[in-house]
Design brief:
Organism: Nothobranchius rachovii
Largest sheet: 5 strands, mixed
Number of domains: 2
Shape: elongated
Protein name: Si:ch211-182e10.4
Helix content: 40-55%
CATH class of the largest domain: Alpha Beta
Length: about 160
């Protein structure tokens, strides 16, 4: 069995002597080979659905030559989200998988209040919110520091996934 294993920041070709007995056994093998200690699920590019990602439940569904994607479980995401910016250069942080859907961080109280009032005004009168330069700067700085805490230099493909 030949697998193309896709992580957030690397792609690896992996040859297995035989098909694992179950998807859980494949996950154990991948944890060992890739030296990953967090919990994850596997998705594979299903040829029946034009290569769209499908959760791997039954190992028999996986073709002999296939591409699998590593997807963090919820428990691993919560651990990753508790990291602080003080460990920006640590190897663990740089190789960490993305935490899933991006959670908008909390902003300073005055900006949160302005955004809430702006949403209320838009819902009532469809009037757009006008932010000052300082407010925009505060929002962007907070977003940038949150994004940077996940991965300092995302690839073009990762940026395109967000847009």
């Amino acid at each position: 069995m030949i697998l193309r294993v896709v992580e957030s920041d690397r792609v690896i070709k992996l040859k297995l002597d035989s098909r694992p007995a179950s998807s859980d056994e494949l996950i154990k093998i991948l944890k060992e080979k890739l030296e990953v200690d967090c919990d994850f699920n596997l998705k594979y590019e299903d040829p029946d659905f034009d290569g769209r990602l499908t959760c791997l439940v039954d190992i028999e569904e996986l073709p002999q030559k296939s591409c699998v994607h590593i997807s963090l479980t919820q428990d691993s995401r919560s651990v990753a989200s508790t990291d602080t910016l003080s460990d920006v250069s640590s190897p663990e942080r740089l190789s960490r998988l993305p935490p899933g859907p991006f959670q908008i961080p909390k902003f300073p109280f005055d900006i949160e209040l302005t955004l809430r009032d702006g949403n209320t005004e838009f819902e009532k009168n469809e009037r757009l919110l006008q932010l000052s330069r300082d407010q925009k700067h505060g929002i962007l700085e907070n977003l940038a520091s949150t994004i940077y805490s996940f991965k300092a230099y995302p690839s073009d493909k990762e940026i395109a996934m967000v847009l």
